[in-house]
Design goal:
GO terms for molecular function: ATP binding; DNA binding; helicase activity; hydrolase activity. The protein is of the alpha/beta class. Helix content is 37%, strand content 20%.
């Protein structure tokens, strides 16, 4: 007899063959990584051709909770009433009160339908950076009246969310925190946790299972990461919502998010936010560098990646770029010049580049006799060594024997790897940022005591400094792939300067995008970033004229 039990996942007992066939077919997807490598005629050894989002346990078919709606449809198609065979065992406890909602945070006109939609159904709410996702998430918790767990992926977001909860939920009491070395359940009404801490402590997740009735997954596009699947995928809360500004992913694995949480149920339009002044359109300024990189002369087999159709060592490319003195000076000079526009954020993918640029800005300030700027670097921590992929066992052994690597190992999924120094001993010592220092830097930035903030991944999501007026994308990165909107890193980063400043109603913002036009792969990335800016409906400067166009113009203007 068919029985369906709904908890953190869905267990289907006694499924007839037609239902099994329909469910397994619907939950079998082409693996984007396999498809991409096949398309580029690359080896696919060890990569599954299909992703199967189901498995069998003791003869029962187990599927993700985000498949519930489609499952009901499939059961109905067999002439069976879903309500008669489904048993909901998701957690819903006695209602609790979060006190009065702070009237200073009345929802805006575009926020009301968003909150209404997520209150009526589980799934994904999409809203641009600056639209008030955290406030809307708090309103959701307030109205659901269930003990809530808010999942995030950085400690900075954990503390920022705590501040917003205290400001909006006036009767929330003591908020629990799990992460950054803290294990405090508070009064049990609202717990904010980093997913990394919960994944590392499954006993905590086990203890929360029967206590949490509402689960909010912040920055839900990260859900395909193992941490989120291991944590959120085991919590049987009745109410589940994911919040994100950028649901599309570069790896095209959004299906994990949709199946693990639910479909997109509402999306706030960016147009309305521009019109209402709740988002500012920054002026885009492309800065073209003279950086050159001879790919063939430095090619090696470690971490070679596909980047615009060329097989090259992207780590070596980044290292060359970081140590290019002329390029760094160009960035630093632009930072100095842009200081007249207000507070700045300089975003890089490298802690080393943060310090190189910071030191150079300070040096040029002195040389030019200008007023010293207050600068600071904030990052998520560094490790002395890192593991890189090797071509094979012989390659790994050779690198260790020739002193180019410390040791080697075989990774179950990634193959042969070598351990190499990422920082010198002195750099590792000088560039560490302690928990207290990090907190002090962010508080200083929030209090407008930092003129130029150099930041790494932290800046992509959650950094809420409305007074930032200038942003520099100091290192290249990919934007939108053709026909997609998966340039989430670019969208998140430029979003840091698009928030209006209540204390500066006439705020103007400027975004410096450094273009390494002479390197094919980096030129390709630049073109993909243009796609992001166009999608965000920003005014994008024209591309530079090619040498061919210049020659054609020259010939057209000749007197013959």
């Amino acid at each position: 007899m068919l029985q369906i039990f709904v908890t953190s996942n869905i267990r289907i007992k006694g499924a007839p063959t037609p239902l099994k066939a329909a469910v397994t077919k619907a939950l079998t997807y082409d693996n984007p990584a396999y498809v991409d490598r096949k398309k580029k005629r690359r080896p696919v050894w060890g990569i599954e051709a299909k992703i199967k989002m189901y498995f069998y346990n003791m003869g029962d078919l187990i599927v993700p909770r985000g498949f519930l709606k489609e499952l009901k449809t499939q059961v109905s198609n067999l002439g069976i009433n879903p309500d008669k065979v489904m048993v909901n065992r998701q957690v819903e406890v006695d209602p609790i009160s979060f006190g009065q909602w702070n009237p200073s945070y009345q929802l805006k006109e575009d926020q009301l339908p968003f909150v209404s939609a997520i209150l009526n159904d589980n799934g994904i709410g999409v809203a641009p950076a600056g639209s008030g996702k955290t406030v809307m998430g708090m309103k959701y918790i307030h109205e659901k009246k269930q003990p809530a767990l808010w999942l995030t992926h950085t400690r900075d977001l954990m503390y920022q969310t705590k501040k917003r909860a205290e400001a909006t939920l006036l009767g929330v009491g003591k908020i629990g925190l799990i992460g950054d070395g803290v294990l405090d359940y508070g009064d049990g009404k609202l717990i904010i946790a980093t997913v990394q801490t919960l994944q590392a402590n499954p006993h905590i997740v086990e203890g929360l299972k029967q206590l949490i009735g509402t689960l909010v997954i912040d920055e839900a596009h990260h859900f395909p990461a193992p941490q989120f699947i291991d944590v959120a995928g085991h919590l049987p809360a009745k109410n589940v919502v994911g919040l994100t500004a950028t649901p599309d992913r570069k790896d095209n694995l959004e299906i994990y998010m949709f199946m693990g949480i639910g479909p997109i149920i509402y999306e706030i339009s960016r147009d309305g936010l521009y019109e209402s002044g709740r988002l500012i359109k920054p002026e885009i300024r492309f800065v073209y560098t003279d950086f050159q990189y001879e790919q063939a002369s430095v090619r090696n087999e470690i971490n070679s990646v596909d980047a615009g159709g060329e097989d090259l060592d992207y780590n070596a490319l980044k290292n060359e770029l970081i140590h290019d003195e002329a390029r760094a000076k160009l960035v630093a000079e632009n930072i100095l010049e842009a200081s007249k526009h207000g507070a700045q954020i300089v975003i890089t993918e490298s802690v080393r580049y943060c310090f190189i640029l910071k030191d150079l800005v300070e040096k040029l300030t002195i040389e030019k006799g200008k007023k010293m700027l207050s600068t600071a670097v904030v990052h998520g921590g560094i490790s002395r060594f890192k593991w890189l992929n090797a071509k094979n066992e012989m390659d790994a052994m050779t690198r260790v024997n020739t002193g180019r690597a410390e040791e080697y190992r075989h990774h179950k999924k990634l193959g042969w790897q070598v351990k190499v120094a990422d920082y010198t001993e002195q750099e590792f010592k000088d560039w560490q940022v302690t928990k207290g220092e990090r907190k002090a830097i962010l508080e200083a930035a929030e209090n407008k005591q930092v003129d130029v903030l150099f930041a790494t991944q932290l800046a992509r999501e959650g950094l809420d400094l409305p007074h930032l007026a200038v942003g520099h994308m100091a290192m290249p990165k990919r934007g939108d792939a053709a026909g997609s909107r998966n340039g989430s890193a670019v969208e998140q980063e430029i979003g840091r300067i698009m928030r209006p400043d209540p204390l500066n109603p006439g705020k103007k913002a400027y975004w410096f995008d450094y273009v390494d036009y002479n390197v094919g792969v980096l030129k390709s990335q630049y073109n993909s970033r243009r796609s992001v800016y166009n999608r965000l409906k920003l005014k994008v400067p024209s591309k530079p004229r090619t040498q061919k166009q210049e020659i054609e113009d020259f010939l057209d203007n000749m007197p013959w």
